[in-house]
């Protein structure tokens, strides 16, 4: 377990997974074992969304890639690269064509192994500062590699009527529950506010969109994404790819709390 601290903020990270963010002793991250989801956070890469209706294949310029829901990155293990009292860096490296065991097989998938036809390095940097908690992602690889990226953190809820605010628009938890597994889309958005017992301010760079998901009332996933996967049929997921350039691609999510 990796622990970071800054003033009244504390973060706990378990093998790269953000399992706790406390401010003045209050927990803001959904806890494993509580109803709703078995994780606290994860990353969706190099695709977002389901692929079963496309026979678990996603088209790329180098041919079809075998991908299950939300991609293969979450099946890989992070290595801790560096750590100080206020920040930690974790990394996953992938060699093109390497077979990755699919944890959904055989109960929920026909594919025992997943693969991607490009090398990549994926870094996750978690930092505490005066501005709050920052989670930064750095994607390195071959220029021209297609990809999608989504960050999937789950937030702990403690009141009966939390609300999500996008500009002047208010979204209730019931609005998110009604949409179900598809997740509620908020397009062209970089900043949202979650009002619960306290107010959580979330700002992003690079993603450009959000989707919200939950099936219970004690947590909600607020997910910045590069592409909303249900905008197209699964066999056309490639339409949502971003393309890696000659430089690293950098994405950020900053979380701060106010009373």
Automatic annotation (TrEMBL):
Oligomer and partners: Monomer.
Domain of life: Bacteria
Record-level Gene Ontology MF annotations: carbohydrate binding; isomerase activity
Cofactors (names): Ca(2+)
Biological process according to GO: carbohydrate metabolic process
Keywords: Calcium
Biological source species: Cellulophaga baltica
Full protein name: Aldose 1-epimerase
């Amino acid at each position: 377990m990796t622990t970071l601290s800054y003033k009244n903020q504390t973060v706990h990270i378990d093998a790269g997974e953000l399992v706790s963010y406390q401010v003045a002793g209050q927990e803001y991250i959904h806890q494993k074992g509580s109803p709703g989801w078995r994780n606290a956070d994860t990353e969706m890469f190099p695709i977002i969304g389901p692929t079963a209706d496309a026979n678990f294949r996603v088209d790329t310029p180098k041919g079809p890639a075998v991908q299950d829901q939300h991609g293969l990155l979450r099946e890989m293990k992070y290595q801790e690269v560096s750590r100080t009292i206020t920040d930690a860096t974790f990394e996953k490296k992938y060699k093109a064509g390497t077979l990755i065991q699919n944890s959904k097989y055989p109960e929920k998938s026909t594919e025992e192994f997943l693969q991607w036809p490009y090398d990549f390095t994926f870094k996750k940097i978690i930092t505490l500062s005066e501005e709050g908690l920052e989670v930064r992602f750095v994607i390195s690889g071959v220029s021209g590699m297609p990809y999608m990226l989504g960050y999937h953190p789950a937030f702990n809820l403690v009141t009966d009527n939390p609300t999500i605010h996008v500009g002047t628009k208010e979204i209730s938890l019931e609005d998110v529950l009604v949409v179900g597994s598809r997740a509620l889309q908020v397009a062209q958005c970089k900043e949202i506010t979650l009002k619960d017992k306290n107010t959580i301010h979330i700002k992003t760079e690079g993603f450009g969109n959000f989707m919200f998901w939950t099936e219970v009332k004690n947590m909600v996933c607020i997910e910045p994404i590069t592409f909303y996967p249900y905008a197209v049929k699964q066999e056309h997921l490639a339409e949502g790819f971003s393309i890696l350039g000659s430089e690293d691609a950098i994405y950020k999510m900053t979380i701060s709390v106010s009373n």
